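Let's practice the habit of predicting before peeking. Look at the sequence and jot down your guess about where helices and strands might fall. Then scroll down.
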Amino acid sequence: MNTKPKGFSYVKTNFNYISYYKDGKWDEGTLREDDKITISGLSTSLHYGQECFEGLKAYRRKDGKVQLFRVEDNAKRFQMSCEHMVMPAIPIDVFIDAVKKVVKANESFVPAYGNKDTLYIRPFMIGIGDNLGLKPASEYIFSIIVSPVGPYFSGPVKPVDMLVSEYDRAAPNGTGHVKVGGNYAASLYARLSAKKSGYADCIFLDPRTHTKIEEVGVANFIGITKDGKYITPKSPSILDSITNRSLKWLAINELKIDVIEGDIYIDQLNDIAEAGACGTAAVITPIGSITNGNVKHVFPASEVIGETIKKLYDLMTGIQFGDIEDPNHWVTIL
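Done guessing? Here is the structure:
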């Protein structure tokens, strides 16, 4: 098939994966053609937000083969999210096997090599059943749906402008560190407000003091200091981005630069030469400026992507598409 995806939007594929949990155990799981799910109107996922999800991609290599990137890390993070939401964990090997099955079943939908197009993979778990009171469900669905997608942002990668939000994405000791829908729902109004004001997205500050950068919309913040260090916030309410983990490793082992995880104060940005937001969907989106109230801070690399972030982007995408040799057992070739 290998048709050109229309941006980052859903295209129905031939198969998806579904597995049901009932009476304390999971069934065998199966591939199916229908992408619709019928559940009780009293499912905990609908009323109490008992759900979690992951996001990863399958990449078409130049030799025509298809590969996954750090799928085991997604499986482990999914387990952590399930535990935090009091849902039955999916074993690592079951998660990986299910991802492989659904990608192989839809291999004709994996876009052709050469355009940065990919097959997006969305594993998720939801609490289901007739649950009126607030308590964990006794039944669950684990499913994986895939879709061919284009780049998250159209056109060449170039710096964008961000606005600091007055709203919080997550509570200080809440669910910010796990990948659950509530975090994303909490970001919608703030992100829409920023976009209505002409910005690409918003910056969320730490919910306790509102003085430190935490996340950029639904992505991690990264920066390159003027003396060449990779910096990124560290907080219990930030999602541990697998993309950020990979970039930190590449910064240390490939570019030979120091990585610092810690506080990045919103009023102390003068030492940062390059800034960006990183995540599965866009890999890295360079940030040209951050506006906080009446103060607009413009980074030195504001017109074009900075040299170091460009190197990291090229390394990352090169490994993901198989153009650069896998440096750390990240790749699974199907």
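How did you do? DSSP finds six helices and 18 strands in the chain.
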